[in-house]
Amino acid sequence: MKFTSALVCLSLVMMVSGKSMAAPVTPKPLAVQIEHLVSLLSDGDAVGYPEATQFQVLKIRKNQEITLAVLTVEGFGGGNNFRQYLAAFSLETTNAGKAHYSLLDVIPIGAGGWRSIDKLHANMIGETKNGGVNFTMKALENLSDDAPNFPSKKVTLKLTLENARLKESK
Questions:
Q1: Rounded to an integer, what is the distance from CA 30 to the centroid of its chain?
Q2: Cα–Cα distance list, 49 to 44, 75, 96, 139, 170 (Å)
Q3: Residue-wise pLDDT tens digits, 97-144
């Protein structure tokens, strides 16, 4: 009951203040690619959770950017579990002039009992010797006494996108 009351109060505050906490809507061409990716990552039971999809455009050079997306796939083996993946896309224009997101790479980035990306906010920190980019992002990791879906340790992930491959550095 207290939880419901808190949600009602938060909704009223948001209505009065005129502020919305809604995440930006995933562009349709990106959502289509994410749906395809979820199909490939699924074990046949797992499904995507589009409401949890996060994306960010990261400018990596003067005239070059990539789109990062954190997507959630849940229900592996028919169970109550999830995995998060980080995907990198390049935005291209088709011959017909339509936007198309081309997948560069995807890696597992979180899961129950491991870690979670609650808010995608990547920061570019430099370039590699081979023309790739280094970037960081915040996450929460599970400690031994945390419940599987409630990580508490704040961490900064260091990632590289080089030769269209994502890699996490320790």
A1: 12
A2: 15, 10, 30, 19, 28
A3: 998 999 999 999 999 999 999 999 999 999 999 889 999 999 999 999
Tell me the whole-structure pTM to 2 decimals: 0.83
| Residue at token pair 């209505």 | 15
Number of neighbouring beta carbons within 10 Å of residue 1: 5
* Distance, first Cα to last Cα, the chain: 43
Q: Strands, DSSP E only, in the chain?
A: 47-48, 54-61, 64-74, 82-93, 99-111, 115-116, 123-127, 133-141, 153-162, 165-169
pLDDT digits (tens, 9 = 90+) for 28-70: 999 999 999 999 999 999 999 999 999 999 998 888 899 999 9
Contact yes or no for 122/68 (Cβ under 8 A): yes
